[in-house]
Structure formats: C-alpha cells, structure tokens
Amino acid sequence: MDLKIYPAVVYAIDGSIVPVRLLGVPGSYPSPHEVARHEALMPEADSIGKCVLADSLSDIITPPAGDVGEVVPSVPVLPDDLFSRSPAAGAPILQKYLDSLPTEDRYAAFEPLVREHWKWLCKAAPYLKFPEPKPILEGQRINIGLRIFSLTGGGAQRSISLLANHFASDPHYNVILFIDDNQAGRLDYPISSNVRVEFINSGIANWAEIIKKLPQDLIILSEHWDRKNYINILLLKLLGVRVLAQERNSMFNHHPFKNYKEKQACVSPLYTCCDAVSCLSRCDLYGWRKNGVSNSIFLPNLPTFDPRSTTPAPLESNNILWVGRWDPWQKRPQMAIEVFAKVLQKVPNARLIMAGPIDNRRCYRRCLRRIQELGIGHAVNIVGFQKDMVPIYAQGALLLSTSHEEGWGMMIAEAKTFGLPVVSTAMPYLETLKKGCIQTPRNDVDATADAIVDLLQNPEKRKQLGADGRQDMLENFSNEITFAKYDALMDAIWAGPDAVAKLCAAEPLMDAAVAEKIVAEEAKFFK
User: Fold this and answer.
1) Are 419 and 394 in contact (CB under 8 A)?
2) Tens-place pLDDT, residues 328-372
3) Which of 54, 147, 213, 487 has the highest local Cβ count within 10 Å?
4) The dihedral sign for the CA sequence 482, 488, 489, 491
5) Is the CA virtual torsion 449, 454, 456, 462 positive or negative?
6) Side-chain half-sphere of 73: how many Cα atoms within 13 Å?
7) Is 300 exposed, middle or buried (0-12, 13-18, 19+ CB in 10 A)?
8) Alpha-carbon 92 to chain mean position
9) β strands within 105-234, DSSP E
C-alpha cells in the first residue's frame, strides 16, 4: 500500500513546535507510532531526534483537509491481524518488514513483538531468516556466555557453575556468566577466577546492548521453564549469536506452556533454529528427534564429584539421606517425612538427614509441624544447604528421592558416586536411575518405605546395589567422559551446522517401543 506525506508539527522537549513530515496511509490519520516507525524516511528526521512524540493524537497539528503531498513508495507495515495468521503465512510478512529497516533498528522493532507474541514467533522461527554468526577464525579467543538466573541452591545451578569452570580452563575461551541482577553477591558454588560474572536484567535483558559491550560467539541458555528463555533465543538469533539451548528437566515438564502438547508445538520449531539443543536423557532425545529437532543431543550433567577420585561410603549406618530444595511439588520433602515415619516403626535406630536449601518457608513450616505430629523429631536432622556435601554422603546408608520429576537428579548422581544405593519414586526416563536404584510408584508411601527397610535390614544387598550404581557412574558419567562429550559438541558448533548434524546423527537413540511407552505414560501423568 502506498503512503503519502503529510506536513505536521510535533511538540519538542523545550516546548517549541518543530515542523516534520509524517508518512501515512491516504485517508487515515498518521499516529505517533507511525511517526517513530518512518522518521528515518523524512527529510526533517534529524530535527526531531530529541522530540517527545505526543501520546495523544490531538497533540499533533495536521494540515487542512486535502493538503497532501506526493505519493511515496510503500514501506512495509505490519497488518493488524498478522499474529492471527498462521506462522507459515505471517513469517514472510514479518521478514519483509524487518528487512526494510536499517540493521541497527531491527532489534528495537523485533523485541516488543517477541515479548507479546513469543509463542507465535516460536512457531514462525523456521520461516524467518536469521543472520549467519560470525565465523570462528583460527587461533582466535572464543567468547562463551552462560545464562542462568542464579547460582544458588539447585542442581541446574551447580551444573552451570561446573560447566563455566570447565570452559574457563581452556585457554581458547573467554567465559562470562550472565546472572540476574537481583542475585548479586549470592554465589553458592565456586567460580573460577577466569570466569567473568555479569549481572543483567532479571526480566528480558537488552541483548543488543549486552552483545555490543561484550560480543559473544555462543550463549548457552538453561532456563527452559521460563518464557524469557524462548524470548532470549529469538532475540539472540536476530543478533546473529550462536545458541545452545539446554533442556535441564524432562521434556514432560511443560512449564511455561499449558501442557506437553503445546510445548512441543511451540518449542520444537524454535529449537530447529538453534545451533544445537542438549537434553538429559535418551528418552527426551527420542522425543525431540521425533518432533523434528535433528540438532538435539544427549549431554549428561557434569558430575559434582569425579567417581575416580571419590572414596565410597562405608554404608555402615542406618542414615537415610534426602537431598534437595524444599519444593512441595517437585522434590516433595513432605513425602520423605511420611516414608521415614513408616521406616522408623520397623527400624527404630534409623535416622533421616535432610540437606538442601530451605527456599520455601511455608513448605518447611508444614513439614516441621508434621514431624512433630508424627513424633519423629528425635530421628530427623535438617541441616539445610551445605556447600560441602562430602561429609553428608560419607555418613549415609542410602539416598531417598521423593521427586515428582527430575531432569537429571544431581543428588542421585552424587549419591551413586559415593556408592550409596538409591530408593526413588519412579521416573522411568531418568538416566541416573537405570542402575544402582530401586524405583517405587510415585505416590506410594508404603512401597517406598518397604524398599528402604529391606535395604537397611540386608547389608549385603545394600552394598551390592550401591556398588552397581558407583560402577555406572565410573563407566558412563565420569568427568573424563562427560567433558569429552561437551568438548566434541563445542568443536562441532564452531565448525558449523554440518558438523553438528554429523555429531547428533551418531548419537545412539533409545529403543522406539520403549521410548513411546514412556512418553505416553509420562505425558499422561503430567497432563
């Protein structure tokens, strides 16, 4: 559609009236938004560089009716119904609009659209043309950024700190941790002096300004539970930055989407535009591949403790360990208390040690009341968050996991490293539960208590199960093995999409029949 030039004026900051020329559709009133959008095409654009455009149309004086200038070539304008169209149909219109803008203006135009229509844009991503990243030159220092909201408490945060430290040990890398600005001074996990920590907006960060100040060759995003994670992918790809998207929980955890189906419909198309996508189980890998994310790969979490240099616990006590955040939905400490109360009836000298950040005070208070009601306070020791977990694991007889879901289960991997057997609510997709563990139905307190009692009353069985779990960590998840997988992925990302595709294609997949059964059951459970 052609636009016409309208002479008009705008009130400036100092109160003076500045003449401008507005571009508008014939027969319509040019709005302040259109003034801002098209000011680069106005001969007088420089004169309104510091003007405040009026919020009200009445604040702009228009020419008499019929006083219209020449017709000018059409400038793409986004139709009002763009985001009600299918992503395949709407993406070319959006692309034409972005292409019409100067390169330096595209981020500012794209960012508000992403904020408001992020789910639609996730689906439209494969139809957009993102700029190619700058090539990696031989011998250059490579800049890697890792984005996580905090380094307090949980397993994902611990894993990110380990990953940052690993990259920082490579002289070819400059490493930056991007953490929420409200987390300044709250670093629970050790960070190498070679890692730079930057505190950025806890909402939607202005990546254009950040990248201008701190150019990045790759940013690793690890907040799949938050809508800003997907907004960040879109914004970074528009800036030509490589993105490694990390799924740090199971794919069945659909937050912030309505359900598993919506997550797959939105995220799968977006992930195909990432430089690579990592997940924590082969079941998840099967699911992502089934949904067309061929650039996905199974990457285990980095181990907190290297099993090759860790002394196994003697398993001589009756101490039951529970490790995790006080999250009543995911970690469920309240179930651990109910299970332990039943164990104590049959093993009177059993003890429950609960370690982990008490980040939900309401849940904590409820659990304290329940401990008092059950009369088991003498046998429960709540130690809270511990920076050094070695003494805790060293005195354990077994680990109890009551989680509703996990992506990896750092506490399970840590316990197995020390040779502790694990009794856990069932998560059939979880890699860390495949050996050295007993799985019980998710909400079955009696079955979970019985499994613990059986291990406490059978020392040889307990030790054999613990040895099996430790061997699993040695053979499949040692530092050496896990670091090598990460390094291979980094090399492939620097080499380009073909190298990533080759690496991902070589990754073994779970048996399709087994995976389909787990996916169906878990999707139904999480619904």
Assistant:
1) no
2) 999 999 999 999 999 999 999 999 999 999 989 999 999 999 999
3) 147
4) positive
5) negative
6) 2
7) buried
8) 28
9) 142-147, 173-180, 195-200, 218-221
The tokens of 92 are what? 């070319």
Give the CA dihedral 500, 503, 504, 505, nearest 10 degrees. 120
Residue 201 and residue 185: Cα distance in Å, rounded? 15
Identify the pLDDT of residue 501. 98
Backbone phi, psi, residue 404, to 5°:
-70, -35
Q: Of the candidates 478, 422, 485, 413, which has an alpha carbon nearest to the alpha carbon of residue 155?
A: 413
Place of tokens 């005070």: 361
CA gyration radius, the chain: 28
* Nearest one of 108, 115, 94 to 39, comparing CA atoms: 108
- Say if residues 78 and 112 touch (Cβ distance below 8 Å): no
Q: What is the pLDDT of residue 522?
A: 85
Write the DSSP assignment of 268-315 as a string of letters.
HHHHTTSSEEEES-HHHHHHHHHTT-TTEEE-PPPPSS-GGG-PPP--
**Which two tokens mark 378?**
């003498």
Q: What order of strands is seen across the sheet that includes strand 296-298?
A: 195-200, 173-180, 142-147, 218-221, 242-246, 276-279, 296-298
pTM for the whole thing?
A: 0.84
Q: Indicate the helix (H) or strand (E) that contains 351.
A: strand 351-355
3-class SS of residue 400 = strand
Does residue 205 sit in helix, strand or coil? coil
* Crossing angle for the helix pair 445-456 and 333-346, to the nearest 10 degrees: 50
Task: Give percent helix, percent strand, percent coil of the chain, each to the nearest 5.
Answer: 45, 15, 40
Residue with tokens 């001969």: 43
CB-based contact 349:358 (threshold 8 Å):
no
